[in-house]
Write a structure and sequence with these properties.
Protein name: SET domain-containing protein
CATH topology of the largest domain: Beta-clip-like
Number of domains: 3
Number of helices: 13
Distance between the termini: 52 Å
CATH architecture of the largest domain: Beta Complex
Radius of gyration: 29 Å
Structural class: alpha+beta
Strand content: 15-25%
Helix content: 25-40%
Bound molecules: S-adenosylmethionine
Organism: Pluteus cervinus
Largest sheet: 8 strands, mixed
Order of helices and strands: EEEEEEEEEHHHEHEEEEEHHHHHHHHH
Length: 440
């Protein structure tokens, strides 16, 4: 989490509760209990994590009514996640895969211990102290054991731990069933920042890489983040996430990481042997960042028969090659989705199944709703509303032009009564002079 705002907040007390005012927002400490996963639903094979009994927030008091009053952990309490935490000589404590993990596979679901406003780096140190004190003693000890990269001249240890480990989350309040933002909630948080930072005891042991193999997805309804694999991860491999914009150049990434986390990134994407390779990598990342503005779009192609059938598929396959080259699988979702849908529009069932299956695996954790839609289409590809649309359009246009040309030809045909000249064949749709305009 990063922020440049360094206003110190003035503390005040109201009804025995500490309050800090900033930009006309009143921040208070608020705790939400986390109930254990219902025992009856636990099974010995499911993934599990030790869960904390509560999560403490430093939050705008107007947002409290939008938060859940209590949360039931989405996971049972027996730990069996596919990772271990280990120490390295040069990169501190890291997360390592203890088993092979497939693409899209779940690595961990975890509740944060604390949540703080994203805008408030430099918050009055008392705010952090009150927040830490609000936790039970065990959680406070564990939290104080987290890595702190900030020099003591810059801030206290409590703030340093938040700044080193805080993961950006968006408290955007969505309906748990539909995943949609509720209008009445939107009214309440209008004009208020919902960007907060969460500190997790395990997830925050994951180091950064500019070619990460994992990503996490926050869910406000369950106050938890799910860490999942962006590509297959081998047992023993380090599990890495991103702390910076990985589409930026190597120099920009390194500067940002140094400024905010005090390390010089030596990941395989940064540790390149020649300037030529750095330039190639920077340019690939820039291309990927701009790809969807500079290349044919699925949306236009899917409505336009004048474009070649494989325009989008070929362009997206090129993007996937660059993604592979840069190990940026976090960017592949939209390309895989649109390749699958392009095959659906072409009515190519075999290819559709290959790409749709990849999509289901890829997004089952980060977007279960989308995974469900693709699973439904995999069951019955023809249920996709534009299934084989291009084929159908062609067939119906061909028969339209066929019938038109028959009428035209019939009118202009020479008399074919026996003894006269032989009947000419009606011109085929593909040779009709009008058809090239449509490029059928
Ligand atoms: C959120 S913590 C990650 C866990 C941390 N390694 C620990 O020991 O708990 C962030 C800190 O980890 C270290 N770190 C993260 N990624 C790194 C990397 N790729 N290379 C070297 N150090 C890294 C930096 O010191 C950074 O400030």
């Amino acid at each position: 989490m990063s922020s440049s705002n360094s206003h110190h907040l003035a503390p005040s007390t109201s009804a025995g509760k500490h309050k800090w005012t900033h930009n006309e927002q009143n921040f208070v400490v608020h705790k939400i209990p986390i109930r254990p996963y219902p025992d009856g639903l636990a099974d010995s094979t499911s993934y599990a994590s030790r869960v904390h009994s509560e999560c403490a927030f430093l939050i705008d008091e107007d947002l409290i009514p939008l938060l859940p009053t209590t949360v039931v952990s989405p996971v049972p309490s027996q730990p069996s996640w596919p990772f271990v935490v280990g120490d390295t000589p040069d990169r501190g404590t890291v997360m390592l895969a203890s088993h092979d993990i497939p693409e899209g596979g779940l690595i961990l679901i975890e509740h944060p211990v604390i949540i703080t406003p994203g805008i408030l780096h430099g918050l009055h140190s008392e705010g952090y102290e009150v927040l830490y004190e609000a936790l039970g003693p065990d959680a406070t000890v564990e939290l104080l054991d987290m890595y702190n990269c900030m020099p003591s001249e810059e801030c206290g240890i409590e703030e340093g731990i938040v700044r080193t480990n805080g993961t950006a989350i968006d408290l955007g309040f969505k309906n748990a069933q539909t995943g949609k933002v509720r209008m009445k909630d939107m009214e309440k948080w209008k004009g208020k920042s919902v960007e907060y930072g969460a500190v997790f005891l395990k997830l925050d042991r994951a180091n950064h890489s500019c070619g990460p193999n994992a990503a996490h997805k926050w869910d406000t309804a369950t106050l938890s983040s799910s860490l999942y694999a962006l590509r297959p991860i081998k047992k023993g491999e380090e599990i890495n996430i991103i702390y910076t914009d990985v589409a930026a150049s190597r120099e920009e990434r390194r500067a940002h990481l140094y400024q905010n986390y005090r390390f010089t990134c030596q990941c395989p994407s940064c540790d390149l042997p020649s300037l030529e390779q750095v330039t190639r990598s920077d340019s690939a990342r820039k291309d990927l960042r701009e790809w969807r503005q500079t290349h044919p779009t699925f949306w236009k192609w899917s409505r336009d028969l004048c474009r070649d059938d494989y325009t989008v598929i070929n362009s997206h396959l090129e993007a996937l090659e660059l993604i592979e080259q840069e190990s940026l699988q976090g960017m592949q979702g939209i390309f895989i989705e649109e390749i699958a849908l392009s095959y659906a529009i072409l009515g190519d069932e075999e290819q559709f199944r290959i790409w749709a299956k990849r999509m289901v695996d890829l997004v089952s954790i980060c977007d279960p709703q989308q995974a469900g839609e693709f699973a439904k289409w995999l069951d019955n590809p023809k249920s996709y509303k534009q299934w084989a649309w291009r084929k159908k359009q062609r067939t119906c246009r061909s028969s339209f032009w066929l019938s038109i040309s028959r009428v035209v030809n019939a009118r202009s045909l020479p008399d074919t009564t026996p003894g006269r000249k032989a009947r000419q064949q009606p011109s085929s749709p593909s040779t009709s002079p009008l058809l090239p305009l449509l490029q059928l």
